[in-house]
Design a protein that fits this description.
Length: 171
């Protein structure tokens, strides 16, 4: 009975610490655009697109930890969707140096959603390597609207077209 009580007290303390971490996090909506593992840091890096079309990256905890692996799985499940990102700036010390890292502590699904035309154009232009002609061609081929909003599904199609228009690397 004593072992169970100690275990429950430990879980309660751990839960309280995690809730404090989530409550203290900066919260903002973003389109979760991609998840890539960084071998050097052993973390995953999430690429986020804000409502203006700007991008930001945040890291997970190390992927070999239970929380890190769970966050990577959650992020992969939510890729291409709007999420409410809970981001903490966490300090670290490694190999004699210290610093700060933007770390995702929670992701809430906000659905597919839409982007403003301006934000969608910025994303597509970035994908086209800054080539406005290539971005415009993909925009037109995907039949994106001249005004209003662009759904994530429409933007995904335009991004694929921009990649096709670009052709293979070096070609």
């Amino acid at each position: 009975m004593q072992r169970l009580a100690v275990e429950l007290a430990y879980v309660a303390r751990e839960t309280g610490e995690e809730l404090e971490r989530v409550d203290a996090a900066v919260k903002f909506p973003a389109l979760l655009d991609g998840v890539a593992e960084d071998e050097r840091t052993r973390r995953a890096v999430l690429t986020l697109v804000n409502s203006e079309g700007g991008t930001e990256t945040v890291s997970t905890e190390q992927v070999h930890t239970v929380r890190g692996a769970a966050m990577v799985a959650r992020a992969r499940e939510l890729t291409g969707r709007w999420v409410l990102v809970y981001r903490a700036n966490e300090t670290f010390q490694a190999q004699g140096r210290s610093g700060s890292m933007r770390t995702v502590v929670r992701l809430d699904d906000l659905g597919e959603g839409v982007l403003s035309k301006r934000a969608a154009w910025r994303v597509l232009l970035h994908d086209a390597g800054g080539d406005q002609g290539r971005a415009r061609q993909a925009w037109l081929e995907a039949e994106l609207p001249d005004f209003g909003t662009v759904s994530v599904a429409q933007l995904v199609q335009a991004r694929q077209l921009a990649a096709e228009v670009a052709g293979p690397p070096g070609g």
